[in-house]
Amino acid sequence: MKKEEHRKAVALRYDAAKDAAPTVVAKGQRLIADRIIALAREHGVHIHEDPDLVGLLSNLDLNMQIPESLYQAVAEVLAFVYRLNQQMGKRPPAPARR
Q1: Quick check: is 3 in a domain?
Q2: Is the pTM of this model over 0.70?
């Protein structure tokens, strides 16, 4: 019998003007994952499905910034979301200049 994969979800917050790195603000499995996804949809937040990345992010504690080892993977997701927002006419906050 194949082991059933549990639905997982992780929500990140990232404001380039304020945050040094994305931060885990919510995470959960099954019903909690469903609720995270439903809230994201209700608020027009894009959802990116990547089971491997979610598995790694779900090991982090809440309110923890992602480790440097995940910067590249998360940056690719954020770049994808920014492009989608531009295509849909939504303007993301401008990145902070340093």
Answers
A1: no
A2: yes
